[in-house]
Amino acid sequence: MADPLSIIPAKLHYRWVICALLFFATTINYVDRQLLGILAPTLQTEIGWSEIDYANIVVSFQFAYAIGLVGFGWLIDRIGTRIGLILAVSLWSVSSAAHGFATSVFGFACARFGLGISEAGNFPASVKTVSEWFPKRERAFAIGIFNSGSNVGAIITPLLVPWIALTWGWRAAFLCTGALGLLWIVAALTLFNSPARCQFITDQHRALLNGEDGPTATKSSWRSIASRRETWAFAIAKFLTDPIWWFFLYWAPKYLSSQFGVQLAGLAAPLVAIYLMADVGSILGGWASSRLIKHGMTNLAARQRVMLWCACSALLVIYAAKTPNLWVAVTVLGLATAAHQGWSANLFATVSDIFPKEDVASVVGIGGTLGAIGGMMIASVTGLVLESTGSYVVPFVICSSAYLVAWFLFRIVGNPSSVHYR
């Protein structure tokens, strides 16, 4: 029997234009987010931050991100992905530029708070957009592609930011990166919309997507969403594993600087290597489950199998705690970030598999909020541990074990034997 996707006119492929827009939004999101981590050693010296001061600045972002995820998740399910994502990009671009005017720990904390609130809109909007535009078997792959933008952003930042900061100063770096969102908004106003309102696709494409997901459902109440085991399975998995990504994002540059003496200009090569590996993990993880589904495995079994592979791969990061070799550390950090991104692509895909499109952003927001709360906790613990011991052993032990714990709890709490994956 012919694949339905193979007989739809070429305009069907417009879904990949949408995926590209999500990819670039995520890239800009992570350029703005990663910037502080790259400049942290410089700012710590210039402004006089302690490890706890830095942790508090990170926590201000995480706290705001937690609030923003719930708020934007609710908002996007009501106003739509186009308006919601354009609003988020506009606000986070202004907040990123505001860092360039900060002069104290409090000033940076306020700028990070604004950035956290607004950047929270990216993933609820993007995952919901994928559920609107892509058939189920492609969703993890599409999520893996747009989510790889986080790694591209983390690659671009250490390549450009040191040069900007050394040439024009660190304030210019924040102002320049804050301007990137304006370019995306111009493209999105022309190209980005929901399938129902997009002028660039056919009615046949719309019918294919609507036929696969069934008739449009009524938006569920928050109480109804929060009462489902699957919501909490997803949220607990995010609570345990999102903090690991935050740790890599904010402390990898500081770890390389303190443990191996890598200075600002020398951070580019190690960080590019780490996040190139993460890029591969994001795309490969999404592709792998799509491939397993194509060969007859159920959505649930395919997602969980790839998540288990990723959880086992993350165990290797424990070697970063004690290795005296820079590139051994870079390699295991790269494998761990690749494992996280493969894990994340499949975990996000379970939401669009289980829940109707009308509820996807809300569920992603709830899970993301717990992930951000976990991020606050690991930031505080890391700051206290490093301030008192200077050792990264405890953080890396947490990083190595979190995914397996999350995998088991996801299975237990989600009660997968009773979940119907459509």
Topology, please?
Blueprint: H1 4-7, H2 14-47, H3 51-79, H4 81-98, H5 105-119, H6 122-133, H7 136-168, H8 170-178, H9 180-191, H10 203-213, H11 222-226, H12 229-260, H13 268-294, H14 299-314, H15 326-354, H16 357-388, H17 393-414
Helix pairs in contact: 2-4, 2-6, 2-7, 2-8, 2-9, 2-12, 3-4, 3-5, 3-6, 3-16, 4-5, 4-6, 4-8, 4-9, 6-7, 6-15, 6-16, 7-8, 7-13, 7-15, 12-15, 12-16, 12-17, 13-14, 13-15, 14-15, 14-17
Report on this model:
- This protein is an all-alpha fold and 422 residues long.
- It has a single domain (11-210, 224-418), classed as Growth Hormone, Chain: A (Up-down Bundle), CATH 1.20.1250.20.
- The chain is built from 17 helices and no strands.
- It has helices spanning 4-7, 14-47, 51-79, 81-98, 105-119, 122-133, 136-168, 170-178, 180-191, 203-213, 222-226, 229-260, 268-294, 299-314, 326-354, 357-388, 393-414.
- Helix 2 runs parallel beside helix 7 (136-168), helix 3 (51-79) packs parallel to helix 5 and helix 3 (51-79) runs parallel beside helix 6 (122-133).
- The longest helix is centred in the first third of the chain and has 34 residues, at 14-47.
- The protein is globular, with a radius of gyration of 21 Å.
- The protein starts with a helix and ends in an 8-residue tail after the last helix.
- Mean pLDDT is 84; it is low at 1-10 and 416-422.
